[in-house]
Predict the structure.
Amino acid sequence: MPNPMEIYKLLPKTNCGKCGEKTCMSFAFKLLNGEKKLEDCKPLYSKEYDVIRKKLEELISIVEKAKETGLIINEELCIGCANCVVSCPVHVEKDPKNAGIGRGIEIDEPILRIENGVVVVINLSLCRRYGKNRTLCVICRENCPTDAIAFVEEL
Ligand code: SF4
Ligand code: SF4
Ligand code: SF4
């Protein structure tokens, strides 16, 4: 599976905002999550990006073909920092001012939780990579400082 940095490197990197994102990096994440489409980046469709756009289309077609995914924690690498728990969008709740707050540590039904110094999977069925409205979310993996999270892809 391509990662956000691979996608980002091929984008115009002008942070023009035409896709509705403040930065090209944010757009790269959302492309992988399925929240954005390549067509949302209008500058990519100018002639100068023809070759690069084809490369991006190839990468995105790999993402779109992924059918089943699983999330695996490498307990030997996990240092229990909880970055994944806090950054997971399913764990985020809105505060009274409508700001998103990562509540992974205290939420009743988390996907991931820290137990005995390592992260454990509590309920994978809540993960955005599952279910009928699934997206190819990669946020926990991208926030892990030790590369302890891997996704199993069945293409
Ligand atoms: S429209 Fe394209 S170039 Fe502009 S910010 Fe979005 S991804 Fe970057
Ligand atoms: S893949 Fe996304 S939804 Fe699933 S646990 Fe990781 S951050 Fe949460
Ligand atoms: S971000 Fe990585 S190291 Fe930190 S708790 Fe999660 S899996 Fe473990």
